[in-house]
């Protein structure tokens, strides 16, 4: 009797789940929407999207084509894997499209984060960010500071077994921490490090505010980082000592983009976050590719040895050295192409919008998926082969005209 009750309960549970799943599909089955599946209510297909990555995209494209709907990261979303449609979307943001990052990311990175604001506020935040990480700042300040930091950081690798993934993560965050706040050691440095890695966990999660969820952990980490930064800003203002870092520049009279405390904090967190995953993963993959391709490593060494022979051992890399690193730049481009850290960008519709012959409702997100462009044989011969020399064969004009590089440039802007 007890076994029969258990079997009946399981059967009813399966029926309920199937009905719930079907209800969610019918709910989004509107005329004009692209094909696709929506998964479970609230959760959608987020779990599959995060776990399967490119395999999720490829299986969906095989079934529905290059333009389909899903429900990921807490929002109904149309995913575009068509290069021409992607270009149209990125070129027409003023026509009913704005940045559409997940709510969890916006909550954790802040309401003044550049991805969360539009119009005049976006222009202000963009100007403030370019003032601290733009070409002039890189040339005059950041290049020398990063050179000094990396020399010190790499000395600690001597005579050790190195976990490259862990070391490149540390490198990316610690150099950002130094450039933004001049913090390199001590209790404050440890507090920032612990809280930041918690913050990163929460940004790509469902915005479910329950104990133990990545979202709750990420929000709490943000609150702790905000407290640390407020204390640091207060100390700077009260002491009237201006340090040569990004925070010092944002607080200075020299900065023409006047920001309040909340805006400054969100810009600092943005700099922490934006350089972390991309720099650490690209650096790690560069080491792997160089290990796997001795000829590339040898030519890279020769380029740097030739530059070092013109300098004293402790002389830093300067702007002219940086511009002369043609093969180094080619290795970076090829690593970025083949590793593809950034798979795409999210946009949000501000009104009902027709895209690619389909009607996308107001408030939906569009995921402009650009990853596959990097492996397009029309653009790159033998696209899965690590070949930095392909970039040396291209003029800068041809690189600029390349669809993949064009979209990459748009993402950076």
Automatic annotation (TrEMBL):
Family: Belongs to the cytochrome P450 family.
Keyword Signal recorded: yes
Any Pfam family hit: p450
Signal peptide: 1-19
Name of encoding gene: LOC103495886
Superkingdom in the source lineage: Eukaryota
Keywords: Iron, Metal-binding, Signal
Stored InterPro entries: Cyt_P450, Cyt_P450_E_grp-I, Cyt_P450_sf
Name of this chain's protein: Cytochrome P450 85A-like isoform X3
């Amino acid at each position: 009797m007890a076994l029969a009750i258990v079997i009946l309960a399981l059967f009813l549970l399966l029926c309920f789940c199937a009905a719930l799943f079907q209800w969610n599909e019918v709910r989004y089955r509107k005329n004009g929407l692209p094909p696709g599946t929506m998964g479970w209510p609230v959760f959608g297909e987020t779990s599959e999207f995060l776990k399967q990555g490119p395999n999720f995209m490829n299986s969906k494209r095989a079934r529905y084509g290059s333009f389909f709907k899903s429900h990921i990261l807490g929002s109904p979303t149309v995913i575009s894997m068509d290069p021409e449609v992607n270009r149209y979307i990125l070129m027409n943001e003023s026509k009913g499209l704005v940045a559409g990052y997940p709510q969890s990311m916006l909550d954790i990175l802040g309401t003044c984060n550049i991805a969360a604001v539009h119009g005049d506020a976006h222009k202000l935040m963009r100007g403030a960010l370019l003032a601290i990480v733009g070409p002039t700042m890189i040339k005059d300040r950041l290049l020398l500071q990063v050179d000094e930091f990396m020399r010190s950081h790499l000395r600690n690798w001597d005579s050790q077994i190195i976990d490259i993934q862990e070391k490149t993560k540390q490198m990316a965050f610690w150099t950002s921490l130094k450039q933004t706040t001049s913090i390199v050691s001590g209790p404050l440095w440890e507090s920032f490090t612990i809280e930041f890695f918690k913050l990163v966990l929460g940004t790509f999660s469902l915005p479910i505010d329950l104990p133990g969820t990545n979202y709750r952990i990420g929000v709490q980490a943000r609150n702790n980082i905000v407290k640390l930064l407020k204390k640091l800003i207060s100390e700077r203002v009260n002491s009237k000592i201006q340090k040569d870092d990004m925070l010092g520049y944002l607080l200075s009279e020299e900065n023409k983009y006047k920001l309040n405390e909340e805006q400054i904090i969100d810009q600092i967190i943005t700099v922490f976050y934006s350089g972390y995953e991309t720099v650490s993963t690209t650096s790690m993959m560069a080491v792997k590719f160089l290990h796997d391709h001795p000829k590339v490593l040898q030519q890279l060494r020769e380029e740097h040895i030739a530059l070092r022979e013109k300098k004293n051992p402790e002389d830093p890399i300067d702007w002219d050295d940086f511009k002369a690193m043609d093969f180094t730049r080619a290795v970076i481009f090829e690593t970025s192409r083949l590793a593809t850290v950034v798979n795409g960008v999210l946009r949000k519709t501000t009104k009902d919008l027709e895209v690619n012959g389909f009607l996308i409702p107001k408030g939906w997100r569009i995921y402009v998926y650009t990853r596959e462009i990097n492996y397009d044989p029309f653009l790159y011969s033998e696209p899965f082969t690590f070949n930095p020399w392909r970039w040396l064969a291209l003029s800068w004009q041809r690189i600029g005209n390349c669809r993949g590089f064009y979209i990459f440039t748009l993402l950076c802007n």
